[in-house]
Amino acid sequence: MEIKNGSILCLSTAPDLEAQQVLGGLQSASREGCYQALKNLVPLASDMTFAQEVISRDGLQRLSTIIENGDDLGEMLALGLTAFLELMEHGVVSWETLSIPFVRKVVSYVNMNLMDASVQPLALRLLESVTLSSPALGQLVKSEVPLDRLLVHLQVVNQQLQTKAMALLTALLQGASTAERKHMLDYLWKRNLRQFIYKVGWARSRGPSSRSFFPSDSYSSLAVFQNIIHSAAPMGDEMAHHLYVLQALTLGLLEPRMRTPLDPYNQEERERLQALRQAAFEPEGESSGTGLSADRRRSLCVREFRKLGFSNSNPAQDLERVPPGLLALDNMLYFSKHAPSAYSRFVLENSSREDKHECPFAKSSIQLTVVLCELLHVGEPCSETAQDFSPMFFSQDHSFHELFCVAIQLLNKTWKEMRATQEDFDKVMQVVREQLARTLALKPTSLELFRTKVNVLSYGEVLRLRQTERLHQEGTLAPPILELREKLKPQLMGLIRQQRLLRLCEGMLFRKISSRRRQDKLWFCCLSPNHKVLQYGDVEEGANPPTLESLPEQLPVADIRALLMGKDCPHVREKGSGKQNKDLYELAFSISYDHGEEEAYLNFIAPSKRDFYLWTDGLSALLGSTMGSEQTRLDLEQLLTMETKLRLLELENVPIPEQPPPVPPPPTNFNFCYDFSITEP
Questions:
Q1: Residues paired with residue 201 on neighbouring β-strands, in sequence order
Q2: What are phi and psi of 607, to 5 degrees?
Q3: Which of 11, 315, 401, 434 is the most core-located residue (most Cβ within 10 A)?
Q4: Pairing mode, if any, of strands 521-527 and 508-512?
């Protein structure tokens, strides 16, 4: 009764029989029989029912034996690793159950000099899963896989191998303690990781053949290429996510300094404060402080700290605020040492201004450090799906401090453009924050490009952008215009509804989220042209979007009960709550539908917020519900604004009254009407 009339059915072997046949082949004494069984197992392993049958018959143990034996380091080993990964992804068996000899054997494939190009990405992927899921085995992987080996893999042209090496690297960093992470990152930067990510260099070229072997200490084929960020091939979503994680973990090392207030009784920190003062006033201090008594020298220091822009007579009190804590002092000292002329010019220039127009360097630096920490999300947990990394971050060492050096000079420039006084300090900081945020959103590829773009964005330009955005958002509020907009809304909402349904008909690739939030499997979903059926099915990475006829699964729109979003979705609700799930809450939606007498769900994780809005709007329109997303509101506002302006083109420069003109009273007689019944001679 559940089979729809006209459905095309494909008869296949029952999962238990298929599993029994495949496992029998794996136990075959002949290499050819084992190879054929692995080829049959790989496409079937993604099916949950079949996987359970294989696992219940100790299939994982048999695969582990094949992988550990390593009799064939070529395609057979690659098939064994692929099948093992597919079966483990179902979450039936915990990664913590893997044996230490098995993990060490997989590690040996990563460390081996002569290895098939198709095997090492799979081995790296398996070790990444082990590291993320099992702290104990993660420590084993960390001790067995040298960081230098991962750096070798990052230098190859093979993008898949690069991506999986970066994935294991970020997994190892995430599993390390703060001290271990700092030690590992320091070592990686010394070993030129940043150059491998950002700069042009020589690379080991591994050709398209999966049977390409090369020793790690020599180049079999050399090629000059732009590594990872500037690669000729487009960067994949997975690599972008791992670069985001690497950036977040590196910036996270600043968090202890950001959370630590200055200790006024710490001699080292007091000396650093004095060094900051002396860098600006040393010549003046020497000429005026020589031979002075202790009281006079102390008074001179207090005055100079005031000129530096500290609010309290004891500068340590200004740095007791957390955040930014000691990080603000680190930034100021870095600026004074690496840009001494700009530092002296900033301090002396403001010292010569009137008190009310003086831009306080120390106060500005403290607040600016807070702004940068917020914009760069320092100290916040890594998102599990974000890809928002800044290429500029990998363009040079000490990127945070270098960014501060650019920002503090921008602040001084903006202060002068605004002709600000001490009372305008918060207003200036708001403008500088906007300048920095707008420029970071452009993702400049280098610090110099960032400097150029942010300096072009002057205070006047910020005001112009604000005015333009306000006009686009507000429009006119005259009653006749509001009445016109209300009359236009139904027509324009129909246009938006039509666009949303067309978007559903085009279809989209979605990523599957497993129990460990991996996103390495894709599936495609689209709406049939007659808007009556949702069709969907799994697709391979990098493959072209499938045709409507090739999608195996169908869901009639008539069977859909409701659309669920955010925390109401079953696939998000099962993961628990926490900050790390916030990004999934914002992109998750599900369709509940009738599956026989039970309720079933089709679960989605949208690639972006915009796609989330478009699909939830389209499904709402399909179900006859209101399209209430933020994107619909913005689209409607844009269409209303354009349509209203087009309707009012002929009334340009004509004032529109607030109230319609009064209707005159009717005439006393209607003799002026023409009588059409009278024929003319």
A1: 225
A2: -65, -30
A3: 315
A4: antiparallel
